[in-house]
Each structure stands twice: as structure tokens, then as C-alpha cells.
């Protein structure tokens, strides 16, 4: 036995088998293997936030210097716009009151009223073909709890779909971005009774920043320029989150009709994202099921 | 830095892979054991930072560390500058393996599958990655050679004395 442990080939084989075991157990939803990274992330996450914050401050400083002249001109233009917007705000306030009255009268629910929105910064981005998820700086301590059967939608400041939470550590979470080949979401054409389709990442489209759209119903003709939003089917994503716009449609094979979608979000330029955490599962289920008008 | 500010050191969409270059050069300069330990550690970090599956990075980087120390003869390793050749070679193998994997797995599981054109794979992925990795290997090789954990030549001499190099790996 001692001879065996002195043999480096044996140790290497042992290590390989152990790592393969970790990989296999890690693939089981809810496996405790996911918690192996927790102690390291407790130490690493604060350090990484510090690095990320310092880097951002340095880049902001240089950006502030170089953008100074442009900002002065922009400021002058904005002053003019403010006057115009003040008038529009007054109009908007009036419309808002009317909307609230109609909402109460027809029992209309806000799409996202049952969700808490947690803001977070991106800590790390995808590295290469092998490693392609992004990490954000909120985790289990912020109520992001992944059990293997649930997930949370991640959106940008304009509420466009960025991806979904894949796993969570105490102070950080991994996000599967919309372009990732493992990402899938049910979407609908953003019209009344719009067709339901499936949007997912594809390796060959990822480099160009596109997604594939398939499972297009036979009787539906998708058009270039159609906007897709989340359908709410499946329960991970609330209905109505903008996903992207159709840029090409291929109907050459009746059995395999597909389209290409350009997501609204540009992950490479994002700094901050927002995680939609349901206030409670029962209320989310109620929100996903449309309330019939009386 | 690699995953926090990927745009800062990228070339044609490919980000400099500090972690991998560090593992390659550690294996190359300091031997099998150091290469394996650093490879395993870097792989764990990589899994934690950017992987969907824990273990893939550990496995890949462990083997990169070991492979870097065993590739070519020990005489080759006595010249630090030839570490660049090692970086180019292993980057090529790593990127090619990644593309082959992404080509064959969907092909085997889904049947009909379209992948990136070969020219795009070569000119937009493999070549830029080799170039950017080569660029970052210069400061890293200097850091490891002059500010590394061992004085120059010390580790190599110690290794040669202790174990007649690759013979340890031969199964008797």
C-alpha cells in the first residue's frame, strides 16, 4: 500500500477519479458538492469586490476627465430637454391617476408586483468556451436560494432579460447568460395572443451575440422585427420581460423552422444587473395565471 | 483580473488567460508537483468563478500543469524563454479541444448540428488566444523566474538531484 501511495501515476489516477466523482455529484440538483466553493467564496468575494470597485473607480476617473467637454455640451442640451420633460411629467401624472383607477376597476395586476428587485454588480464575466457563466455580488445572504428546482430571472436596468441564476454562494451567485448554450426560455411574440416559441443559446450564434428561436407553431409566421417577451410558462421567469427582436427567419424546412433573435441586452457592456426574487411562490403563481376580468 | 476586467486585456474578442498561462509556466519552470498543485488550485478557482460544473476546471488545469512539466526533455526546460513555445502549444491544444467538444457533443446528442466555420474558429478564436496568451506570458515568466518562490535554478537542481526527472512517472 505504501508503495502504491508513493507511485505518482497511482496518485494522479486517484485524483482524477475523485474529481470525476465531484463532477458527477455536482450535476445532481441540490447536491452538497455545490457548497465546496462556499468557504473560498467567503474569503474571495470581498477581495474581488474590492478589486472590482477599485478598477471601476480608476476607469471612472479617466472617463470623467475625457468626457468632461462632452458632458458640458450635453448638460446644455439636457437643460432644454428638462423644460420639455417637466410638461410631459405633468401629463404623465394625470395619466397615472387614470391608470390606477382603471387598474382597480378591472383588477389588472402589475407584471412584476410580486417580485423584489435586488440590484447587484457583475464580479466576473465569461472566460472562454469552457467557462462561460458570469458572477454577481449577491447570494444566499440576500435571499437567493437555489434548490435545483427553482431559479430567478436576471434583468438589466431597462428590465431586459440578462439570464437566470444558476447557483448561489453566501455572497455571490452565478448567472447563466442568455447567450449561453445551456440557457432556454419560453417566449411569446409581444402582441395580443402572440405565438409561444422557445429561445435558447447556440454555440455558433453566441459569438455574433444572437440566440436561436425554435418550436415555432405551424400556423405562425414570425416576421423580422417581431419583439419577443418572456411568456411566463415554466415559472422561472415572470411574463412580459423583453427578450429581444427577431433578425432573421428560416422557413426552408417545414419540420425545422427557426429564427435568429438579437437579445436587447449586451452582457459585455453591463456593469449592474437586477435579480427578480419572488415575494412568495404562491403569489407568483397567481401573477403568472392571468386574472379574468369580472 | 482575467474575469473581472476581461475587456482590459483582450484581442479580437479573446481574453488573456492568466490562470492557464500561470499553470503552464509553473509546471514548466518548477516541475510536476508544483504544476499539479497550482493547476488544481487554479482549476478550482476557475470553476468557482466561471464554470457551470465544479470539477471540470480542476481536471483540465491539473493535467495542464502536469503536461507542462513533462512536455519535452528537462534540458528544454532549462531555458526559460522556451516557455513561450510551451504556452503556444498548450493554448492551441486547449482551444482546439474546446471547439472539438462543442462541435461533437451536440452532433452526437442532437444529430443535425451547425458549428462555426473553420476559418472563424482559427482566426477569431484559436489564433487570437494564442497571441494574447503569448503576450501575457512575458511578464509572468519574468515574475516567476525572478520573483517566484524559488531562486533561479534552485528548484531545477533540487529536482534533478532528488528524482531523475521523468523516470518517476514510469510504471515499473
What would the keywords be for this entry?
heterodimer; A: 294 residues; alpha+beta; Thrombin, subunit H; 3 domains; six-stranded antiparallel barrel; 5 helices; 36% helix; 24% strand; globular; B: 172 residues; mainly alpha; two-stranded antiparallel ribbon; 7 helices; 2% strand
Description:
The complex is a heterodimer of chains A (294) and B (172). Chain A is an alpha+beta fold and 294 residues long. Chain A has 3 domains: 2-30; 45-106, no CATH class; 115-294, Thrombin, subunit H (Beta Barrel). Chain A is 36% helix and 24% strand. Chain A has helices at 2-6, 8-26, 38-106, 203-206, 281-288, and strands at residues 115-124, 134-136, 153-155, 161-168, 173-177, 184-189, 196-200, 211-214, 227-230, 242-250, 258-263, 272-278. In chain A, strands 1-2-5-4-3-12 form a 6-stranded antiparallel beta barrel. In chain A, a hairpin with a 4-residue loop joins strand 4 and strand 5 (173-177). Residues 284-294 of chain A have low confidence and may be disordered. The longest helix of chain B is centred in the C-terminal third of the chain and has 30 residues, at 118-147. The mean pLDDT of chain B is 80. Chain B has helices spanning 18-30, 32-50, 56-70, 74-77, 83-110, 118-147, 154-162; strands at residues 10-11, 14-15. With 172 residues, chain B is mainly alpha-helical. In chain B, helix 1 runs parallel beside helix 3 and helix 5 (83-110) packs antiparallel against helix 6. Chain B is built from 7 helices and 2 strands; from the N terminus they run E-E-H-H-H-H-H-H-H. Chain B starts with 9 loop residues before the first strand and ends in a 10-residue tail after the last helix. Chain B has one domain. At the A-B interface, helix 2 and helix 3 of A face strand 2, helix 2, helix 3, helix 5 and helix 6 of B.
Amino acid at each position: 500500500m505504501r508503495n502504491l501511495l508513493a507511485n505518482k501515476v497511482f496518485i494522479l489516477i486517484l485524483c482524477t477519479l475523485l474529481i470525476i466523482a465531484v463532477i458527477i455529484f455536482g450535476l445532481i440538483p441540490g447536491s452538497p458538492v455545490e457548497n465546496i466553493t462556499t468557504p473560498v467564496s467567503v474569503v474571495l468575494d470581498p477581495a474581488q469586490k474590492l478589486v472590482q470597485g477599485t478598477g471601476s473607480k480608476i476607469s471612472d476617473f479617466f472617463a470623467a476627465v475625457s468626457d468632461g467637454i462632452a458632458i458640458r455640451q450635453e448638460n446644455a442640451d439636457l437643460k432644454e430637454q428638462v423644460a420639455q420633460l417637466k410638461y410631459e411629467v405633468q401629463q404623465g401624472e394625470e395619466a397615472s391617476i387614470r391608470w390606477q383607477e382603471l387598474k382597480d376597476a378591472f383588477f389588472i395586476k402589475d407584471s412584476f408586483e410580486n417580485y423584489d428587485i435586488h440590484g447587484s454588480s457583475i464580479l466576473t464575466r465569461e472566460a472562454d468556451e469552457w467557462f462561460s457563466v458570469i458572477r454577481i455580488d449577491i447570494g444566499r445572504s440576500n435571499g437567493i436560494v437555489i434548490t435545483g428546482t427553482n431559479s430567478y430571472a436576471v434583468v438589466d436596468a431597462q428590465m431586459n432579460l440578462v439570464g437566470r441564476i444558476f447557483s448561489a454562494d453566501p455572497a455571490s451567485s452565478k448567472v447563466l447568460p442568455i447567450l449561453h448554450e445551456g440557457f432556454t426560455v419560453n417566449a411569446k411574440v409581444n402582441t395580443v395572443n402572440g405565438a409561444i416559441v422557445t429561445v435558447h443559446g447556440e454555440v455558433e450564434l453566441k459569438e455574433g451575440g444572437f440566440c436561436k428561436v425554435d418550436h415555432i407553431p405551424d400556423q405562425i409566421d414570425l416576421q423580422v422585427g417581431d419583439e419577443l417577451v418572456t411568456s411566463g410558462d415554466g415559472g422561472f421567469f415572470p411574463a412580459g420581460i423583453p427578450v429581444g427582436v427577431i433578425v432573421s427567419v428560416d422557413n426552408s424546412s417545414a419540420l425545422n423552422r427557426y429564427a435568429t433573435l438579437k437579445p436587447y441586452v449586451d452582457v459585455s457592456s453591463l456593469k449592474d444587473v437586477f435579480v427578480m426574487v419572488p415575494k412568495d411562490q404562491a403569489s407568483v403563481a397567481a401573477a403568472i395565471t392571468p386574472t379574468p376580468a369580472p | 483580473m482575467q474575469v473581472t476586467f476581461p475587456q482590459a486585456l483582450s484581442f479580437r474578442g479573446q481574453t488573456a488567460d492568466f490562470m492557464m498561462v500561470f499553470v503552464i509556466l509553473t509546471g514548466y519552470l518548477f516541475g510536476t508537483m508544483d504544476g499539479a498543485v497550482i493547476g488544481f488550485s487554479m482549476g478550482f478557482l476557475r470553476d468557482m468563478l466561471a464554470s457551470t460544473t465544479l470539477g471540470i476546471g480542476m481536471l483540465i488545469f491539473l493535467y495542464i500543469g502536469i503536461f507542462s512539466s513533462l512536455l519535452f526533455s528537462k534540458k528544454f526546460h532549462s531555458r526559460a524563454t522556451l516557455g513561450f513555445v510551451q504556452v503556444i502549444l498548450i493554448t492551441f491544444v486547449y482551444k482546439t479541444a474546446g471547439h472539438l467538444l462543442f462541435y461533437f457533443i451536440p452532433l452526437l446528442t442532437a444529430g443535425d448540428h451547425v458549428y462555426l466555420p473553420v476559418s472563424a474558429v482559427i482566426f477569431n478564436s484559436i489564433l487570437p488566444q494564442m497571441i494574447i496568451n503569448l503576450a501575457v506570458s512575458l511578464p509572468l515568466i519574468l515574475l516567476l523566474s525572478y520573483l517566484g518562490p524559488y531562486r533561479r535554478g534552485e528548484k531545477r537542481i533540487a529536482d534533478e538531484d532528488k528524482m531523475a526527472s521523468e523516470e518517476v512517472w514510469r510504471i515499473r
